[in-house]
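Whiteboard transcription, Tuesday session. T.W. wrote the structure tokens on the left side:
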């Protein structure tokens, strides 16, 4: 059975990261794309390492170095849980892939274990990227002994198991509940987005700490931090006691709970896995078809409708690309409830809230536009679209317009909330209205352009395209860059009016959008 798990996991990981295609393809352009994607991954790794090292350094300066492993473990576990939850259902309970593998001389438990192991490896990378830089800074400044490295290595290896198990349970529950509804995809989308909203709202709530609370935290920081971590995620506190305190009993407790929960879930799932896949894939025909009058649409209208139907037919596609829009609404609601001072506390630069709000709101939906993988989502059916009597521009515009239509409700709600909260003057109101709108249009067109450069048509699972393709990573990075540039000018040039910076920047974005559209 171990050999079966190893072979299935290897096949899954090579397909997930595109290693087979990179190794055997004769297309030089594909190899160049993979190399560029590798460079991008290195850049992201350096950013994460800098973030983790900075957090660790700050905690040590505040005399809270003892809790560096706990804070790193909480951050890593949250990242693993958040990203795994949205793909656990489609990956674990993919009936088509299961039917292909079930025909092979392998056991169902080997199939389940290989899928868990594939997700474990990817999540372990997240854990390493956050834990190792933070612990390295701690080791340089605190100079711990040999047990520190031994316990830290064991903790990092077992860190993904608990959030992976919890996310898999959540994904299974969402898939199971939505499968009983007539509109499965809509139910899955609503349940997942509701879960995401709860997580994001909790994150914003934890960020809104007033000055009095901050003073109390600094006066009695260590017990307060330990209490918060212990109440939120006790295993992280156990890991900190083991790694920083050298207490082996806490390490054994952490390992036992992590591995025990994982094995229990794996054992229970192995007994009913095939039935679950079959039930989740089952559907009931409505049986009430009625012939009605035929309708005609313009070519562009048909392309937009086709794109929207394709978009809302995939739970993974919707839940991953709507997170930014949901964040935009929740952020605006937070400003309305807590006031603009909340933004100053989050970015730690007093007085910058009103100047920076337009770009902060605009960049949230721009970091993950649905167009960043809309071409790849066509998959093996891409040739059908190319043989239709439509031009390339009509295809591209259909995808861009569909993206804009999906984001318009979120944009309008966010604008109403933020305008009520701030009651700005005319220049400020124009900036709050125009800048996010320009961001949405620009990011939608940029996503198509990036996906045209990095298409992926050979895939077995939609999560491979939505979450792990080069085009989504590049779009995320470019969306982040387009937000960082004006934000840097707002911080470094406080004497320049904000409307002037936004005027120049939106003009550049409009020009780039026009160039991409009419080239």
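and on the right, the sequence the group agreed on:
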């Amino acid at each position: 059975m171990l050999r079966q798990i190893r072979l299935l996991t290897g096949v899954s990981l090579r397909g997930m990261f595109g290693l087979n295609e990179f190794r055997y393809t004769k297309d030089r352009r594909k190899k160049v794309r993979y190399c560029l994607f590798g460079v991008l991954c290195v850049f992201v790794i350096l950013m994460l390492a800098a973030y983790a090292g900075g957090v660790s350094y700050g905690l040590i300066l505040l005399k809270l170095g003892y809790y560096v492993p706990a804070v790193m473990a909480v951050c890593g576990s949250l990242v693993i849980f958040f990203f795994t939850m949205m793909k656990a259902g489609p990956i674990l309970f993919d009936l088509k892939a299961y039917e292909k593998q079930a025909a092979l001389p392998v056991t169902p438990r080997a199939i389940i274990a290989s899928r868990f192991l594939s997700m474990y490896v990817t999540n372990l990378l997240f854990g390493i990227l956050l834990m190792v830089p933070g612990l390295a800074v701690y080791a340089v400044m605190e100079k711990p002994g040999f047990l520190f490295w031994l316990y830290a290595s064991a903790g990092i290896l077992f860190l993904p198991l608990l959030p992976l198990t919890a996310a898999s349970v959540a994904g299974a529950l969402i898939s199971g509940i939505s499968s009983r509804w007539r509109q499965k995809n809509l139910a899955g989308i609503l349940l997942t987005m509701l879960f995401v909203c709860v997580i994001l709202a909790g994150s914003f709530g934890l960020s809104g700490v007033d000055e009095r609370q901050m003073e109390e935290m600094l006066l009695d920081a260590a017990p307060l931090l330990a209490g918060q971590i212990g109440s939120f995620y006790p295993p992280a506190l156990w890991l900190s006691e083991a790694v920083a305190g050298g207490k082996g009993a806490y390490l054994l407790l952490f390992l036992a709970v992590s591995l025990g929960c994982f094995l229990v879930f794996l054992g229970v799932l192995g007994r009913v896995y095939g039935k679950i896949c079959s039930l989740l894939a089952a559907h009931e025909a409505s049986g009430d078809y009625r012939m009605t009058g035929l309708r005609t649409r313009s070519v562009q209208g048909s392309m937009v409708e086709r794109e929207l139907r394709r978009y809302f037919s995939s739970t993974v596609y919707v839940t991953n690309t709507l997170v930014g829009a949901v964040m935009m609404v929740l952020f605006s609601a937070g400003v309305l409830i807590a006031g603009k001072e909340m933004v100053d506390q989050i970015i730690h630069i007093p007085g910058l809230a009103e100047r920076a709000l337009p770009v902060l709101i605009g960049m949230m939906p721009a970091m993950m536009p649905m167009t960043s993988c809309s071409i790849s989502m066509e998959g093996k059916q891409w040739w059908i679209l190319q043989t239709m009597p439509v031009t390339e521009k009509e295809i591209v515009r259909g995808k861009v317009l569909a993206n804009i239509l999906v984001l318009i409700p979120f944009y309008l709600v966010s604008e109403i909330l933020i305008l009520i909260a701030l009651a700005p003057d005319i220049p400020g109101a124009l900036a709050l209205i125009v800048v996010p709108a320009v961001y949405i249009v620009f990011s939608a067109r940029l996503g198509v352009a990036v996906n045209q450069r990095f298409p992926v048509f050979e895939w077995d699972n939609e999560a491979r395209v939505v979450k792990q393709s080069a085009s989504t990573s590049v779009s995320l990075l470019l969306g982040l860059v387009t937000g960082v540039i004006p934000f840097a000018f707002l911080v470094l040039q406080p004497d320049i009016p904000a409307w002037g910076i936004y005027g120049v920047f939106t003009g550049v974005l409009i020009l780039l959008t026009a160039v991409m559209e009419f080239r």
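Someone added at the bottom: The radius of gyration is 24 Å.
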